[in-house]
Amino acid sequence: MTGRNVKQFLSLGVAAMLAAGPGTAQAQLPPLSRPVSFDNSQRIRELVRAGNLYLSVQDALALAIENNLDVELQRFILPTADTDLLRAKGGGTTRGLNYTVLEVPIGVGGPLSPLTVNPANGGIATNGTSVPTNALELGVLGEPADSYSMQGTVNQSTGTALPVFDPAFVGLLNWQHTTTPQVNLLSYGTNSLVSNGVSANAGIQQGFASGAQASLTFNNTHQNINALNAGYNPFTGSSLGLTLTQPLWRGFGPSLNHRFIRIAGNQRRIASLLFQQQLIATTYGVIRLYTDFVALYEDEKVKEESVRLANKLLSDTQAQVDVGTLAQVELTRAKAQLFSTQQDLINSRGLLEEQEAILKTVLTRDQDAQLRGMHVIPTDSLTIPASDELRPLQDLIADATAHRPDLGQARLQVENSVIGLEGARNLTKPEVDLVGVMQNNGLAGPLTGFVNNPNPSFSGGYGSALGQVFARDYPTYGVGLQVTLPIKNRIAEADLARDELQVKQSEVRVKQLQNQAALEVEDAVIAMRRARAAYDAAVQARQYQQESLDAEQSKFEVGASTAFFVIQYESLVAQAKSTEVAAKSSYVKAKAALERATGSILDSNNISFDAAVKGATK
Questions:
Q1: In CATH, what number is assigned to the domain containing residue 308?
Q2: What is 221-276 written as a DSSP string?
Q3: What's the pLDDT at 449?
Q4: The dihedral sign for the CA sequence 476, 479, 485, 486
Q5: Structure pTM?
Q6: Of 281, 310, 467, 481, which sits with the fewest C-beta atoms within 10 Å of its C-beta?
Q7: Are 413 and 561 within one domain?
Q8: How far is CA 578 from the centre of its chain?
């Protein structure tokens, strides 16, 4: 197909399609996330002195905020929630969030953990008393939660389908050649009808908050046939039409059709609360690991002191055996005590090294050979204040209810479930749609002389067809009502019933979480009181055991006692010192557990949420 009219038609048709496209098909995309880096922050190099990593608890928390991969993983939930909001604004459903919060490894425990409670000398010393600091970790309150989803793996039904709010450009450019055999020569004056046609169509379609769907189409065709009796050949047809469908019952209303935008807005708040929950879990875990590390570090000093005393006892025993004031068996007992204390020291150092390795893993993104070879030197000691300034229990529980992020995001999930019910409830309604159609048509082509009394308005090219379209010479319009009345709608009714049950379950789950939070607060308060009482008792026990040891050593020096009794009191003193260290660490961890339970641990440690999102503490 050639000719001036065809070229004009093609150029105008393609131009019309291209003109309809810009500004309608483009969607706003979220900016690309920064690339993931597995390099450690500069802070860790600044804390290295003489080949060792000198670390305070605040340094440890800062490194965790900057480097911990659990925190880094959770940072992605914030832009993920933004993509859901963008999707909802375009008329899509939300894809949901990952509600998993990761806990820091527990570590090997403190000096009185089950691995270190029994000394190597076979049970001469009595066992110390450890104080639980978090009942959730012990399992007496149930397993620690890692997923804070109210619905678990079961999601709500999507309900009534949403209109697509983003406009879309639709275009078609097509050329076709057909040859059709003819039985009757009089039909077209030829045995085979050959047709060459070009179609160039363009359109825009969009949905609206009311539920309406609109489609504006601009269709163009040009056809050339070999018929000998055709009145207009080639001929050009054009039409401009608008179709509008407005739901009147099912799918009607901005509130219904914007429900996923409201849900996505709540999900952004939930994402912030989940990140805050991860910060709380990581902060508490790092404090616990650091506290146990300091306790093990101090306990190593206790074990070193025990080895020193055992060496002194062996030396004194050897001297008395040499002069004949003690039996040879006392020398054997002194040697056994020395090797037992050395074994206790080896065990203590081994546990300290394990805790050190765990701590460094939590505080770094990647460990090179230099970092693995460094030893961590704690710069903070375990201290207990002279008195506790605890507010009334009911006030602490009220703080937990108001400030804990897990409770806040649980309430938002229930709110989202209620919003989602609108779609499930609307889907049970009949479908009644108002449909309107309006279209203008045009037709033009050169006269062939085979038509009697031809209409001169059809004579011409593509411009004549367009003139007819925009002059509305040949309009088509109509309006109708389309109704679908389901005799049974069991699928929608079942979805609605199940979604209502899930909402009720979520409300019960929120109450469970509130009760759990209150129990955690009460447990942490009890643990703090127990830890203080245990510490006071441990201090008294250590003082009296030390006095007993001093008295027994004085008797031993003048030959009035044996190595057996000195060994016994040395073991009791060592155990009392370890118990004192453990009681201090239990108090510090119990205080951290209380701050976690009330949701105040970030403020107590000067951790800013906005700064943590960027990978810093302030």
A1: 1.20.1600.10
A2: EEEEE--TT-SBSSEEEEEEEEEEEEESSTT--HHHHTHHHHHHHHHHHHHHHHHH
A3: 59
A4: positive
A5: 0.83
A6: 481
A7: yes
A8: 40
